[in-house]
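Journal club prep, notes for RB
We'll compare a predicted complex against what the paper describes. Inputs for the coenzyme A case:
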Amino acid sequence: MTIPAFFQPIAVAAGVDGWLVHLDDQAAQAQNLDLLDAAERERAARYHFDVHRRRFVAGRAALRCILAGYCPSPPWALEFAYGSHGKPELAACPQITFNMANADELALVVVTTRRRVGVDLERLRPLPDVEELARSTFTPAEVARLRGLPVTQRTEAFLNGWTRKEAYVKAIGTGLATPPQSFEVSLAPGAAPRLVRLPAADDLGRWRLHAVRPAPDWVGAVVVEADARQESVE
Ligand SMILES: CC(C)(COP(=O)(O)OP(=O)(O)OC[C@H]1O[C@@H](n2cnc3c(N)ncnc32)[C@H](O)[C@@H]1OP(=O)(O)O)[C@@H](O)C(=O)NCCC(=O)NCCS
């Protein structure tokens, strides 16, 4: 079987590979259900809208093709295991760690080794009431920092904060079971991305946050455990 490449590498950080998947790409659409396992096919069948089904199939096919480059197995034979909150990992290659985020026509997959990793991406778009959204998801200190920014920067700042928070809760694997108001991240467009404060049981020194621009008008974030060996050489 020929596996067309409808994903492209994007820079994240040393030792962390990023792959951007264009879910509406013709090659992606040509991928068939044969690459998916029974549970994935069942899930695909449950989508109400065709566009969502096609994107899901394309995303899973891409994920499998990407991971087959790291774990010696054909894409369709890869088996996933799931954490208590649904985080997938490779059953046969647990040392290869990965995470995936989907939004509209794009998906972002990050892959590394032996380190927990999480990713999120969002399209930069007008949001109806950024301050209200921030009040329901950010800490009071973050809301104050958002309000301190020029109005023209607040939407991007909100999406920076949101993607950074999601990338962190996906890295630790709990997802939104960890309240986004239980920790803080930097927001300001153009400033260095930073985890500011983490939930009490966690340690800031353990994690690295990377901001990515997967495409024009898109923002993304990757949170990955620090690699003590690599950083001692740099
Ligand atoms: C993880 C979570 C934040 C994803 O949010 P989202 O914005 O809807 O989706 P994204 O596109 O960013 O990410 C989805 C991908 O993240 C991965 N993922 C799923 N659960 C995850 C988790 N707990 N941690 C990290 N990654 C996870 C999967 O690859 C998923 O892809 P899929 O939908 O094709 O299966 C959200 O689903 C969540 O909070 N899940 C936990 C819910 C929970 O506690 N469940 C318990 C019973 S399983």
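Talking point for the session: Residues 59, 85-88, 99-102, 118, 120, 166, 169-170, 173, 175-177 surround coenzyme A (CB under 6 Å).
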